[in-house]
Structures are given as structure tokens and as C-alpha cells.
Design a protein that fits this description.
By secondary structure, this protein is α/β, with parallel strands linked by helices. Among the domains are: about 110 residues, Conserved hypothetical protein from pyrococcus furiosus pfu- 392566-001, ParB domain, CATH 3.90.1530.30; about 55 residues, no CATH class. Helix content is about 55%, strand content about 15%. It is built from twelve helices and seven strands. It has a five-stranded mixed sheet. Strands 6-7 form a two-stranded antiparallel ribbon.
Length: about 290
């Protein structure tokens, strides 16, 4: 299966920023600081322990990449890529780690950190959404530009950015894998956080598919909209009934409903005797 191309590619981005001929050097782990642009917020302890055990056995096979960081005149380093290896090496008790020095600026560093995680497909959708949002806020660019850099379509970026508007509890459901992007996207169609939260809980409890979630959102919107309109229509029709009732001197009822061709219904006038019937018909024939 052909591997999907992602933006300019992590390899080409790294090659363009290599210092000192791209040599691998051993760096003191205590001199390396985490990447402030790291989009991942959750590192599974079990996976880190497994990687640490592998590192104890075979060492760090793939070097991390770093850049210089001037810490009060003392040159230290900041991770660009390889935070799992960095964390696992510390768990394994290593003092140093193989590294390649690069010369990224902040924006490029943020882009590379995001691309690395996207290529490995280990970001959850909320982490990905928040990373896109942080990039756009820190380095204003069009969504089309960001999409090109990430190797994604503009609609994909737009849809992922929309996830940032979800209530905190719903975001956590996505982080925990209880909801997929397909299941949670219809939730955004609802107007209030309370409605969104209630629907998200319902999707999880009932195990609804993405399609069923879309249908549920549509039902909720359609049910809510007529409720407001029905009240307004009922008040209007009642006022008409009263006016017509006064005109004919009898009780008037109007039935009104929506059809594919538009609105239709009936107007009925009550009478209690033959004399009243004749009076009403005579009045209507004038």
C-alpha cells in the first residue's frame, strides 16, 4: 500500500534545517527541554514503559532532533521531534541520547512537530484540532495554506477546527475514544452546549453510528424549530378565529397544517340549530 504523502514531508523539512552536516551527537538528557509546540497531550504509560524496555535492551536506534535554546547564556537544547523516545530514554535511566541538531524557527518547529505526529497517526482528534488552532493563532495564515503544509484538504482542516467549539466533556469523550469524529460532528449542529452534551451522551449510551448520529441531530433540529413556529402560528390562528367568530356570531375553528405543496387546512363554523345555520349561510352569501 502506498504511504500517503503529507505536505512537504518530514524528511525534506528536516534535511532543510540540519546543522553541522547532520551529524549524530550524544546529548545530555538533562540539557534537553520538551517541545513547547508538542501537540500530543497524552502519552500512554504502558506504551512508554514498553519503549523504555526496548531502549534498555537495544538502545535508541533512531536519533531525536533538537535545536539550540539559549538559557541565560548557556546553550541548551529543545526537542523538535522524538518526544516519546526522549521520555522513554529517561524512564530507561539513560543519561544521554543520540540527537541531530537543526536550526528551526518557532513556526517551522511547530509545523514539524505536528507533521511528525500526523504521519504516525497517534494524535487524537482533539489534539489535532487544538494544534491546528494554535498554529493559526500564533502564525496567522489562511486555512488553505495550513492545509497545503499539512497535506490535507481545506474542508478537512475546517472540520477539524470546528471540534474546538465542543463542550469540555464532549472533547474528553473524543479523547477517550468514546466518540469518533464522524459521530461527534453532527453534535455541532445543535445550538447550545447543553443540547450538544445531551446528544453526545445519548450517542455513547446507545452506541449510535455516525449516520444514526446525523439522523438524530436532524430530528432534534426539526423538532425544535416547529415548536417555536407552532406557538406563533397557534397564537395568530386563535386571533383570526376570534375575529371571524365575532363577524358571524358563532364559534369558528381553523385547522392548519404543512404539506409538500405549502400550508393547507379547514375553517369550520359551528351552529346549534337550523335557524342559526340559515343565518350564517345568508351572512356568507352577502
Amino acid at each position: 500500500m502506498t504511504k500517503k504523502k503529507l505536505g512537504r514531508g518530514l524528511g525534506s523539512l528536516l534535511e532543510s534545517a540540519l546543522d553541522e552536516g547532520g551529524k549524530v551527537i550524544e546529548l545530555d538528557l538533562s540539557k534537553i527541554h520538551p517541545n513547547p509546540w508538542q501537540p500530543r497531550r497524552e502519552f500512554k504509560e504502558e506504551a512508554l514503559q514498553s519503549l523504555a524496555a526496548s531502549i534498555k535492551d537495544k538502545g535508541v536506534i533512531q536519533p531525536v532532533t533538537v535545536r539550540y535554546r539559549d538559557e541565560d547564556g548557556n546553550f541548551e537544547y529543545e526537542l523538535v521531534t522524538g518526544e516519546r523516545r526522549y521520555r522513554a530514554a529517561k524512564l530507561a535511566g539513560l543519561k544521554t541520547i543520540p540527537a541531530i541538531l537543526t536550526s528551526y524557527d518557532n513556526q517551522a518547529m511547530a509545523e514539524v512537530a505536528l507533521i511528525e505526529n500526523l504521519q504516525r497517526e497517534n494524535l487524537n482528534p482533539i489534539e489535532e484540532s487544538e494544534a491546528y488552532e494554535k498554529l493559526l493563532q500564533s502564525y496567522p495564515m489562511k486555512q488553505e495554506t495550513l492545509a497545503e503544509k499539512m497535506g490535507k484538504s481545506r474542508p478537512y482542516i475546517t472540520n477539524m477546527l470546528r471540534l474546538s467549539a465542543l463542550p469540555a466533556e464532549v472533547k474528553q469523550m473524543v479523547r477517550d475514544g468514546q466518540l469518533t469524529v464522524g459521530q461527534v460532528r453532527p453534535v455541532l449542529a445543535l445550538a447550545t452546549e447543553a443540547e450538544q452534551l445531551a446528544m453526545a451522551r445519548q450517542i455513547v449510551q446507545e452506541g449510535l453510528s455516525a449516520r444514526k448520529s446525523e439522523e438524530l441531530a436532524k430530528q432534534k433540529k426539526e423538532h425544535k424549530k416547529p415548536a417555536k413556529e407552532d406557538k406563533q402560528v397557534a397564537e395568530y390562528l386563535h386571533s383570526i378565529e376570534e375575529k371571524l367568530g365575532l363577524s358571524v356570531g358563532s364559534k369558528v375553528r381553523i385547522k392548519w397544517k404543512q404539506s409538500k405543496q405549502g400550508h393547507k387546512g379547514t375553517i369550520s363554523i359551528a351552529f346549534k340549530s337550523e335557524e342559526e345555520f340559515e343565518r350564517i349561510t345568508e351572512l356568507l352569501n352577502r
